[in-house]
Amino acid sequence: MNVRYDEQQLDALRELASIGSGTAATALAQMLGRPVELAVPRALALPLADALDAVGEPDAMVASVVLPVGGDAEIVVLLLFSYSCAASLCELLGVEPRSELGDSALGEIGNVLGASAVGALAQMTGLALEPEPPHVLHDMLGAVVASVLSATAGELDLALVLDAELGVEDAACGLSFLLLPTSGGAAELLGRLGLGAKE
Known about the structure:
Layout: H1 7-32, E1 36-38, E2 42-47, H2 48-55, E3 61-71, E4 75-82, H3 83-92, H4 100-125, E5 129-131, E6 135-140, H5 141-153, E7 158-168, E8 173-181, H6 183-192
Helix pairs in contact: 1-4
C-alpha cells in the first residue's frame, strides 16, 4: 500500500514542521545562550530508497540523535550533525566530543529539541505525544537513516521527511532536524488537521 500526499497535505505537514522546528530552535538558543537561525523546512514524501539522497551524502560520517515518540501517533525525531558541528556544540557546552559526556550532551540537545517540537505538534493537533529517551549514534549517514527508516516505516516503502536546517551563531554548525512519522502517525497528524491521507 502506497500513501500519497497532495500539495495541500504537504503544506500542512510543512507548517507543522516549521512550527515544531521553530519552537526547537528557541529552546536550543536558550540552552546554548546564543542565537540559532532556522532555515525554511522542506516536506518530502519519498520512497525509502530516495529519502537517503534527500538528506545528504550516504557515506558522510555523522553524529545523530534518535528520539522515538509514542502515544497517539508514532513519530521519530532525528537530528543529524556533521562531526565538526557535533564537536563545536560539545565545546560550547564544555565537554569533550565523542566522549561519554559529549554523547550525553548531544543526547540532551536532541531531547530539548525533540521534546520542544513534539510539544508544539501536540498542542496544534490535540494528540497525546510522549517522547522516549534519546539514543546517540555515530555512523555513516546512510546507515543511520536506513536503520531509522526501516524501523519506523514497517512494510510501507514511503518515507515522509520533514527537514529543517538549524544554524548556531559563532559555531561552524548546521544540523538537520527531521520529523519522521510512520504512515499511521502521518495519517493521525493529517486527520487532526482535517486532511486525510490518500491511498
